[in-house]
Please model this.
Amino acid sequence: MTNILCIGAGYVGGPTMAVIASHCPQHRVVVVDINEARIQAWQSDQLPIYEPGLDEVVRGARGRNLFFSTDVNRQIAEADIIFVSVNTPTKSFGQGAGRAADLQYWEKTARQIVENSTSPKIVVEKSTLPVRTAEAMEHILNYNSAGLHFDIVSNPEFLAEGTAIQDMQQPDRVLIGGKDSPSGQKAVQAIVDIYAQWIPLERIITTNLWSSELSKLAANAFLAQRVSSINAISALCEKTGADVTEVSHAIGLDSRIGRSFLRASVGFGGSCFRKDILNLVYLCEYYGLGEVASYWEQVIKMNEHQQMRFVSNMVSSMFNTVAGKRIALFGAAFKANTSDTRESPALAVCRALLEERAEIVLTDPHALDNARADLGGAAQLVCFEPDPYAAAKGAHAIAILTDWAQFTNLDYDAIYKSMAKPAFIFDGRNILDHKKLHAIGFNVYAIGKPPLTHIPAI
Ligand code: NAD
Ligand code: UGA
Model:
């Protein structure tokens, strides 16, 4: 039996360890966190995150070989392998503020590992980290007075929220980076052996530490870049009469381009794309690669532009003012099938419309609590309404901001009747049947498509 510990019971630590525990009944898996409420939730029937399929996996392994605890020090002492999946937000102070990764949580954890260890261990970077972080970790971990040896392995996580369990069960690949020394390679093999319990060996790739660290940042940058690229094209579609869904389909069928991540939208969100690209930009600048840095920075600028373009479009279509008008925002989560609202474009749109003095009512099937917390002071200006029909009642406009399947199946006839007229609908995810909505009476504005309106041009 191997004692596996994960430090950090968040969106990554909880689901990944639950899946490892379910496939490796011979190992004991413990997940620890300093956040007591979070650990209590992991121990209860009301898990701290909404993720399809997660409940079943947790229920199957919890109490058997999967445990949740706040006793970080004791669990460190007992562990053979420690995955570290603490948060690595963007630094908000000092050098690199607004760009570099804030590594304070990682470094504190590394020091805590040293202080509480009495045996050698493998320490696995699960968090997304700047390239060459392992070097700093090596110094902190291995210059200890007890003479203990720690091996550092990079095993970045590629799961996406909303499909986390499926992504873990059948990943495109698992990436494991290690040092080229005998003990480094032994440590890599120990991590390979865990994943090999359910993942074919050809999908488990091993590299050097720096390639592994950089591949994670590069993968997120490439994915976000595709979204920004199609969103840039969507702006041109709106000016020219082209339809971005048709363009996306036409280019995605080229097998060299591929179809994924070409859905035009109100912009990408989520805790990682922005932070990881900013981190990449910072690294490029640090290494004197100014042109490379500005190339990647443009991906973020385009995303911000897309969000604000959406808001401007709303305001100008609604006769250049939304002040005092009730607007129903459908969706708060940054994507469907998650309760996560971190960096959600829905909240960016919400804040911008509040600045225009609109009356905002926000509806979402799972993310209203997180939205309230993330909006901070602005939350008091927002009405949180779980029922989309009630949210739309009396509204001048609806904006679809999250691609929840629920929103496509609503009775838009009834919704239209309950709204102020003229009624507007802005589909920031292109998930609705626009022709049908137009026939009902809505003025319909979608991303990258010609508007369908009943308002005669003057
Ligand atoms: P999260 O904020 O949901 O979870 C991190 C947890 O670590 C928190 O619960 C926090 O309390 C805990 N923590 C912080 N310091 C600690 C300490 N010293 N001891 C014990 N616990 C501590 O973050 P997340 O979304 O799970 O992301 C974690 C890492 O994984 C980040 O680097 C992120 O970039 C990366 N990642 C995230 C995703 C995702 O979908 N969210 C996917 C791939 C990679
Ligand atoms: C993303 C990556 O897909 C994961 O591989 C990675 O592990 C993770 O970031 C991370 O490092 O945190 P996630 O942010 O959970 O996963 O979700 P995505 O499916 O990538 O969506 C990100 C954002 O892009 C969402 O707001 C989504 O709505 C938007 N998006 C995505 C589009 O607007 N259009 C698309 O075609 C695809």
Remarks:
- Residues 128, 157-161, 220, 223, 227, 261-263, 265, 268-270, 272-273, 334-335 surround uridine-5'-diphosphate-glucuronic acid (ligand 2) (CB under 6 Å).
- The radius of gyration is 24 Å.
